[in-house]
Amino acid sequence: MIEPRAQMNNVSMYSPGKPVEELKRELGLDHVIKMASNENPYGFSPMAKEAMMEEMKNVHYYPEITAPVLADKLSRNLEVPANTLIFGNGSDEIIRMITRTYLNVGEEAVMASVTFPRYKTNVVIEGGKPVNIPMKEGTHDLQAMKKAITSKTKIVFVCNPNNPTGTIVGEEELLQFLESIPSDVLVILDEAYYEYVHTDDYLQSINYLDQFPNLIILRTFSKIYGLASVRVGYGIMASDIVQEILKGKDPFNVNRLAQAAAWAAIGDKEFMTMTKQKNEEGRLYLESNFSRLGLSYFPSHTNFVMVDVAQNAEEVYNRLLEKGIIVRPGHLMGYSTMIRVTIGKQEENEQFIQALEQVLEK
C-alpha cells in the first residue's frame, strides 16, 4: 500500500446528513423529510433557474476564472470594490485556499471546539496545529480565544452565526476582539448564515474591512439563496490578500451555471424576503414547542435549531429515522444529548414535532 502524507492520518472524510434516497432504500419508506443539512426548503429563485437555462448554451466553454460579472453585481450589492471579492466552489473551498496560501507547517489556528469541522481539517492537511477552545453556553468564548494566541498563531476562525449551535457573538464583544488581534494574524469571520440573523446586536463586519486589513469575511449562496448543489461561496477581504490567494486557486473552480445562478439570485429580493420570513415563523414554532415539551435549546440566528432532548442523541436520531425524519445527531458534534434540526416548511416542522414527541415518550 502506498502511504499517504502523515497529516492524512489525522483527518476523516466529511460526514454529511443522511441522503433521503438512502433512508428510503434502507427502511422501505415512501415519505422522508430531510431536516439535517440546513438546506433551503423553499428551493431557489426562479430568476436563478432562468439564468442557468440561458447559460446552458455556453456549457462547452470554460468559465471566466474570476467570475467578473458576478463580482461586479455582488460588489454593487454589498458596496465593496470588486477586487476585494474572491469566489469558490462553496465557501469551504475558500477556507482551503486560505490555509494553502498562508499556513506554514507547525503554525497554529485558533477556533472554537464545536464549530464547522472543515476549519480543523484544512489546517491539519497543511501541517498546521488546530487550537480548540471550549464553547461557553454554545457560544464562542472570545476572551479564551484571544488568550490562546501565541507567536505561532497564523489564523483565528470565528463562525458567526456558529454552525452547529446557531449562536452569535454580539457586536461590541466581536469588535473589541478584532481590535485585540495582532495585525499579522488572519481573522476569518464565517458568516454563511448572515442573512438569517434577527437582532441588531450583530457586527456589520463589511464596514470594518478598511480598519482591519487582516480580516476575511466568508459568505455563501448555499443557504438562504438555496443554491447548495451548484456550489458558490465568496470571500470579502483586502485586495492584496485576494491576489495572493488567486495564485493557488484552481482556474475554473466556479462553473458557468453556478456563476449565472448566483448573479441572478442577487436580484430576487422577493425570494430572499419570503425565505427569511418563513424561516422566522418556523423558528418561533419550533422554539415554542420545545419550550412546551420542557426542552432547552441554543438561541438560533440561522435556519436550524440545536435542542437538548435530555436523552441519548444517537438513539433519538435513530428513532426519528424510523419515522422518516432525518436530523443531525449532536453526539457527532460534542453534544451527547442534543440534536440539530433544520427549520423546514410548516408541515415538515409539524411532522417533526409530532414524531419527536412520540419518540421522547418512549
Topology:
Layout: H1 20-27, E1 33-34, H2 46-55, H3 68-78, E2 85-88, H4 91-102, E3 108-112, H5 118-125, E4 129-133, H6 142-147, E5 153-159, H7 171-180, E6 186-190, E7 215-220, E8 233-236, H8 239-246, H9 256-266, H10 269-292, E9 304-308, H11 313-322, E10 325-326, E11 328-329, E12 338-342, H12 346-361
Describe it.
Helix content is 37%, strand content 14%. The strands form three sheets. A seven-stranded mixed sheet has the order 2-8-7-6-5-3-4. The protein contains twelve helices and twelve strands. The chain is globular. The chain folds into two domains: 6-43 and 270-361, Aspartate Aminotransferase, domain 1 (Alpha-Beta Complex); 47-266, Aspartate Aminotransferase, domain 2. The longest helix has 24 residues, at 269-292.
